Description:
Elements: H1 6-11, E1 19-22, E2 26-30, E3 38-44, H2 59-75, E4 83-86, E5 102-106
Antiparallel strand pairs: 1-2, 2-3, 3-5, 4-5
Amino acid sequence: MAGDCIFCKIAAGEIPAKFRYKDDEIIAFDDLDPQAPQHILIVPRKHIRTTLDLTTADNELIGHVYQVAGKLAHDLGFAQDGFRVVNNCNEGGGQSVWHIHFHLLGGRDMVWPPG
Ligand code: DGP
C-alpha cells in the first residue's frame, strides 16, 4: 500500500466507496464523477502506478480485471447493449490517480473517436 494513494485507502476501507465487486486481487466501485449511467472503476489491490509499470508477473491480474469487467457488465444488464473498458495512462492520456485502474462505462451508446 502506498500511504498517500486514494485507491489504496479505498481498498483498505479507509475511504468509503460504493463497492460493486471485491476479491483478494481487485476491487470495483462507482466512480465519483460518472461519465456514463454506469461508471465503475476496477482497481487491482496491488499498487501499480501506471500501465507502463506492469510486468509479466501482472499478466494474470490484468486478465482477471477484464473477466470481472465482463461479469459486471453482464450482472448490471448492459453487456449485450455494449460497453467500454478504458485505461488512461499518464497525464496526456487523462490519468489523474496514480494507481492503475480501468473504467467500465455502460448504459449509453459510446462514441468514436473518444475525446
Ligand atoms: P483517471 O482520470 O483515469 O485517473 O480516473 C480517476 C477517476 O477516479 C476519476 O474518474 C474520478 C475517480 N475518483 C477520484 N477520486 C475518487 C474517490 O475518492 N472515490 C471514487 N469513487 N472515485 C474517485
